[in-house]
Amino acid sequence: MICCVVFEIPVCQSAESVPRVGKSIAIAAVGNPDSSMVTSTASWIRRSCRCDVNVKSPVSAVQSSPKGELEYLAGQLKQDDVFLVALVDVPEDVTFRKGIFKSNNVALLNVWALRPARILETQSLRDQYAGRVLKEAMYAVGALLGLGECPNPQCVMSTWENDAQLDAKGGNFCPPCDAKAEKLFKALGVHRLE
Ligand SMILES: [Zn+2]
Predict the structure, then answer these.
(1) Distance 135 CA to ligand 1 centre (A)
(2) How far, in Å, is the centroid of ligand 1 from the Cα of 29?
(3) pLDDT (tens digit, 9 = 90+) per residue, 43-65?
(4) Which of 41, 69, 120, 154 has the fewest CB atoms below 10 angstroms from its CB?
(5) How far apart are CA 192 and CA 190, in angstroms?
(6) CA of 173 to the centre of ligand 1 (A)
(7) Residue 4 in this model has a pLDDT that exceeds 60
(8) Per the structure, how many domains does the chain have?
(9) Is 165 a domain residue?
(10) Whole-structure pTM value
(11) How many angstroms separate the alpha carbon of residue 119 from the centre of ligand 1?
């Protein structure tokens, strides 16, 4: 006797019917910043914010003005990017340091301006530089998210007036800022990591 068993074959879901996992924060290198600095900054944001972070393809050409850069990068935002933090390597003679353009969902950081020395000869100088970049990138994430300035000097959302203050402050949100960020990330549909 031939026994015929019919198995239920699962029907593949089309791409459209698969639920979206949520949006992510985008980070992009513009110009020629150290690629390891970009990945370590992305990892810090991912860990600290417990969010997906999408490292975009580097953009080698620097636009001639911050306005041009802003317009170009705003055009690079995809549907799943909640906002974009650009680490821009602009030569030291440019006075532009940073711009947070909330209505465009883009932040521009001139990472060159954060270098503690022109030539980073020692590991401690390289670490100092990386720390400054990740704190400024975290501040930009908080500002784009809608967090205000924080009076807690250890919080990454505190303001700084000189390099010593930037070096002294922490790189994470304080508990009240973190609680606000949690709600704002949720409202924006950002995918949270466990
Ligand atoms: Zn705070």
Answers:
(1) 13
(2) 27
(3) 999 999 999 999 999 888 888 88
(4) 154
(5) 6
(6) 5
(7) no
(8) 1
(9) no
(10) 0.86
(11) 33
Pull the structure tokens for residue 9.
Answer: 């074959």
Tokens 């924060």 found at: 25
Please tell me the distance between residue 151's alpha carbon and the centre of ligand 1 in angstroms: 7
- Interval between CA 1 and ligand 1 midpoint (Å): 75
Q: Kindly give the distance from the C-alpha atom of residue 126 to the centroid of ligand 1, in angstroms, as a whole number.
A: 26
Q: Confirm whether 194 is domain-assigned.
A: no
What's the 142 CA to ligand 1 centre distance in angstroms?
A: 10
Structure tokens at 56: 């975009």
For residue 75, is it within any domain?
yes
Distance (angstroms) between ligand 1 centre and the Cα of 128 equals: 22
Residue count (the chain): 194
pLDDT tier at 20, thresholds 50, 70, 90: low
In the chain, pLDDT over 70 holds for what percent of residues?
A: 89
Residue with tokens 């501040």: 139
What is the torsional sign of CA 121, 123, 128, 134? positive
Report pLDDT for 167. Answer: 96
What's the CA gap between 32 and 22, in Å, rounded? 30
Domain containing residue 53: 22-146
Tell me, yes or no, whether 163 lies in a domain: no
Q: 69 vs 30, 62, 75, 91, 171, CA distance in Å?
A: 9, 7, 10, 15, 26
Cα-to-centroid distance, 159 and ligand 1 (Å) = 10
Looking at residue 36, its pLDDT comes to: 87
Residue 188 alpha carbon to ligand 1 centre in Å: 20
pLDDT in tens, 83-140: 999 999 887 767 888 999 999 999 999 999 999 988 899 999 999 999 999 999 999 9
